[in-house]
Write a structure and sequence with these properties.
This protein is mainly alpha-helical. The protein has helices at about 1-35, 40-55, 55-85, 85-95, 95-125, 130-150, 160-185, 195-225, 230-240, 245-250, 255-265, 270-295, 295-305, 315-330, 330-340, 340-395, 405-419. The chain has two domains: about 1-190, no CATH class; about 205-419, no CATH class. It is about 85% helix and about 0% strand. Helix 15 (about 330-340) crosses helix 16 (about 340-395).
């Protein structure tokens, strides 16, 4: 919610053109993030969840140390590549000198962003959900306070917004590293080979990269063919559409480590219950949001972001449909990744990512941002349905909404309201 508030405020402060440049910058940084993390942000949940389940604290600490060493080296290397190739990326591909001027901030922030992400994922793996939630909240609070300061002092510019973004990363990173150090200091440390970690994590790079294509390639392709203002409008619409899957994303902050934990203990009954409960309860909250956005699309855009963004309603319809399917199918991707079937998920993601890329280039030429939205929604829905079917074939567990659980939750809620 704080992140959404920051996007609303920033979109209003910068306007469609500079908001579009800022959005493209973040999407470039997202690609760099995936490449430099080398899949460690996903595998850390599996490795730590398994270590917690077996009580192997020495292996847990050694895994943490090895992962931090890997990402510091890889993040620094990718940050240098961004800085060195900034002219090619910004001017030749996106035809924007303003983007070139701010790319250096992306290079500087990348190692810090990755360290913060791994720190948060470490606490999730340890099932310390309070700290794992506190750090992103602190990040967004610092960012929000900085943006409010810029607004009231009439200092709003893309460069000052990036300084605020940088401050939002640095504060929670320092706090998180201090907490993690004190938590793990008493534990023994087993030496873990980086090669062993990378054997687990590298297949997930392909998976995450394919997911990145599906979730962000629409911005890159639109940026190649349209003005930054169009990218800014599409970015606002995408942000609003993401609220449909927001309830499921809350559960996805919690359940991956639980899935790895129950899988390590061969407790498939609880494994099945957790994943179906998350999709059922998530969809119960997602469906009203979907209906609200369908009925009051333009009003919502005008109210929250401003009248400059109201032309994005057509794209909004496609995106919220894709996100609703995402919510209904549940945490099927995490089920494959946390149960040792991540290579299958990699193949599905890679295939659907290629389909999405082809559709994006075809649709943007004929239908603009609406065509991009339709291609993205189709590819997202296809990937989630395929993944859900594969999960059932391999584990015998459906991840989608359960009518029985839906009825049970409704009855329990009714009793609670009556009392």
């Amino acid at each position: 919610m704080l992140g959404a508030a920051n996007k609303i405020l920033l979109a209003r402060l910068l306007g469609p053109t500079y908001w579009g440049i800022y959005t493209i910058l973040l999407k470039i940084c997202n690609i760099a993030e995936i490449l430099s993390l080398l899949g460690t942000n996903t595998v850390i949940l599996k490795l730590l969840g398994t270590a917690v389940g077996s009580g192997d604290w020495g292996r847990l600490k050694g895994t943490l140390t090895g992962i931090f060493r890997i990402i510091i080296v890889s993040s620094s290397a990718v940050a240098f590549i961004i800085y060195w190739s900034g002219d090619l990326i910004a001017i030749r591909f996106f035809h924007s000198r303003e983007l070139y001027a701010v790319l250096v901030w992306g290079a500087v922030a990348l190692p810090l962003r990755n360290c913060l992400l791994i720190t948060v994922e470490a606490f999730r793996g340890l099932q310390d959900l309070k700290t794992a939630s506190f750090l992103p909240v602190l990040q967004q609070v610092v960012f929000l306070m900085s943006l409010i300061f810029l607004h009231y002092n009439a200092l709003a510019s893309i460069h000052n917004a990036l300084i605020a973004f940088f401050a939002g990363i640095l504060c929670p990173l320092l706090a998180g590293l201090m907490i993690l150090y004190h938590r793990t200091a008493p534990w023994p440390s087993e030496k873990i080979s980086p090669a062993g970690i990378l054997r687990e994590s590298l297949p997930m790079v392909v998976t995450r990269g394919s997911l990145l294509i599906m979730s962000n390639m629409d911005f890159y392709v639109l940026g190649l063919y349209a003005e930054p203002a169009e990218v800014g409008i599409y970015g606002v619409v995408s942000t609003l559409a993401a609220t449909v899957v927001f309830p499921l994303n809350i559960f996805n902050q919690v359940i991956p480590a639980m899935l790895a934990h129950y899988n390590a203990q061969n407790d498939y009954q609880r494994l099945a219950y957790v994943v179906r409960f998350a999709s059922t309860l998530g969809t119960m909250f997602s469906a009203p949001i979907f209906i609200l956005l369908m009925l009051f699309d333009k009003h919502m855009l005008n109210l929250y972001f401003g009248y400059h963004y109201s032309s994005g309603t057509g794209a909004l319809y496609f995106l919220i449909a894709g996100q609703l399917v995402n919510s209904i199918t549940g945490s099927c991707g995490y089920m494959l990744q946390m149960t040792g079937l991540h290579k299958l998920f990699m193949k599905i993601s890679l295939t659907c990512g290629i389909i999405n890329l082809i559709l994006d280039f075809f649709m943007v030429r004929h239908f603009g941002k609406e065509g991009i939205a339709a291609a993205t929604a189709f590819s997202l829905a296809t990937q989630n349905i395929l993944t859900m079917v594969v999960v059932y074939r391999k584990t015998g567990i459906w991840t989608m909404v359960s009518p029985k659980l839906l009825s049970d939750i409704a009855k329990q809620a009714g009793k609670y309201i009556c009392y």
